[in-house]
Design goal:
The structure is a homodimer. Chain A is globular. Among the domains of chain A are: 60 residues, Arc Repressor Mutant, subunit A (Orthogonal Bundle), CATH 1.10.10.10; 73 residues, Roll (SH3 type barrels), CATH 2.30.30.90. Chain A is 42% helix and 17% strand. The first copy, chain A, is α+β, with helices and mostly antiparallel strands. Chain A has eight helices and eight strands. In chain A, β6 and β7 form a beta hairpin. In chain A, α1 packs across α2. In chain A, the strands form two sheets. A six-stranded antiparallel beta sheet of chain A has the order 3-8-4-5-6-7. The first copy, chain A, has a two-stranded antiparallel sheet with strand order 1-2. The interface between A and B is medium-sized, with 18 and 18 residues. Bound molecules: manganese (II) ion (4 copies). Chain B binds a DNA duplex through α3.
Chain lengths: 219, 219
DNA sequence: TTTTATTTTTAGTCCTGTCTAAATATAAAG
DNA sequence: CTTTATATTTAGACAGGACTAAAAATAAAA
């Protein structure tokens, strides 16, 4: 139905729309896709032609209902395949993203229906991100960034914001994983760094780390 | 490493080399890939450039060791995914080919290693075709076409030659599947048609069917 | 409100993979 | 051994996606 490039653009734009309401800028898309702004303009014009988003030059883009539907479906496939890779093939959660980037483009409704059932219709992927159902409905979770916690608060790690390999490997090393409880023992105001406790260990983390980890606070 | 198009060409050429020794012609490749001869010439020149096959104009092509390696690896992936689709996701054997055509291009050594182990390192795919091991070694089976059997001989169905959907659906309808024993009750010389028995049923099949089914004769 | 900096778009090019139409080799007939 | 048919290759074009360099809008400073 849609090309690999089109699906990747729609997915990237969808994620950018989540992070900040309103139109998405050409540069933001270019940066998130590691491409040039001029390439983005080209593609965005094609996608507008196909009614997958609205585009006014110099004003940014916004996905249409149809465009959102396509994007969410790609995200659903990506996350289901990640569950498969971790649950069935015993990959680590930091090893699956690249492979899922390929698998998410396999075209077959029936395949995904059956994969979902095979996996027991999971609600979350290995990084704690919700898996949209077949109608594109995303379960909203009440999570906040670890960096938003104050001293002496705690939360259970539920997902990561950016799941790049190096970051996830850092988390593995520090024994931080989905479901693990994190206590904020101290917090510096001038740089947002924290001292936290995870399991028996306590250590220092930078603001950059804290603003990439989502936690669920217990009520 | 290689593009989707390159992998598909190498795979098609490999299969053509199996069916008849010697060089593979441009037209044969074009027909098997449902493309034009001129397109084949273009691609074949690129593949020769990359040392994946030898090419002398007007003389046809032949895969190099390297080209064969790539082709066999794609075939290995294709067949492993077919096993996954049938064994784990409960697809019918006539529903998996199209999806496997996509999955065979997913790039990840580790993925295939793990998938193979997950499936119990199967030797054959759902159509009875052997699955090459990680070194590209294909188990040779002693199978012959059903059409080669004489009256009163019998054989066990081990694989199909062309696995297009309509043909496989025909087999399903007639209860012909891998492992099923087929008895040749009669054979006409002028058109090669046969009367066969499968399970309790006996019926007529055309030569076209008989030359698309491989059977293993018991010693 | 000019001037400067940043963002975005256009123009022109390139690469992959495909096609049609025309040219050239090879094979088959006569 | 010519003539005809078939197979194969070239030439030229095109669509999808991407890039660089240059132009045009918009935003930020002065
Ligand atoms: Mn991912
Ligand atoms: Mn994920
Ligand atoms: Mn197949
Ligand atoms: Mn098969």
């Amino acid at each position: 139905m849609f090309t690999l490039a089109e699906e990747n653009y729609l997915k990237a734009i969808f994620h950018l729309e989540m992070e900040s309401e309103g139109e998405v800028s050409t540069n933001a898309i270019a940066e998130s896709m590691d491409t040039k702004p001029s390439s983005v303009t080209d593609m965005v014009q094609k996608l507008a032609e196909k009614k997958l988003l609205t585009y006014k030059r110099y004003k940014g883009v916004q996905l249409t209902a149809e465009g959102k539907k396509v994007a969410v479906n790609v995200i659903r496939k990506h996350r289901l395949w990640e569950v498969f890779l971790v649950e069935k093939l015993n990959f680590q959660w930091d090893e699956v993203h690249e492979i899922a980037e390929q698998l998410e483009h396999i075209q077959s409704e029936e395949l995904i229906t059956r994969l979902d059932k095979f996996l027991g219709s999971p609600d979350f992927d290995p990084h704690g991100d919700p898996i949209p159902d077949k109608h594109g409905v995303l379960k909203r979770t009440e999570k906040k960034l670890l960096s938003e916690l104050k001293k002496n608060q705690s939360g259970i790690c539920v997902s990561v914001k950016e799941s790049n390999g190096e970051f996830l490997q850092y988390l593995n090393k520090k024994k931080i994983a989905i479901g693990v409880k994190i206590y904020v023992l101290g917090k510096e105001f001038f740089d947002g760094s924290m001292v936290i406790r995870v399991g028996g260990e306590q250590f220092f983390i930078s603001h950059k780390i804290a603003e990439n980890l989502y936690v669920q606070t217990q009520k």
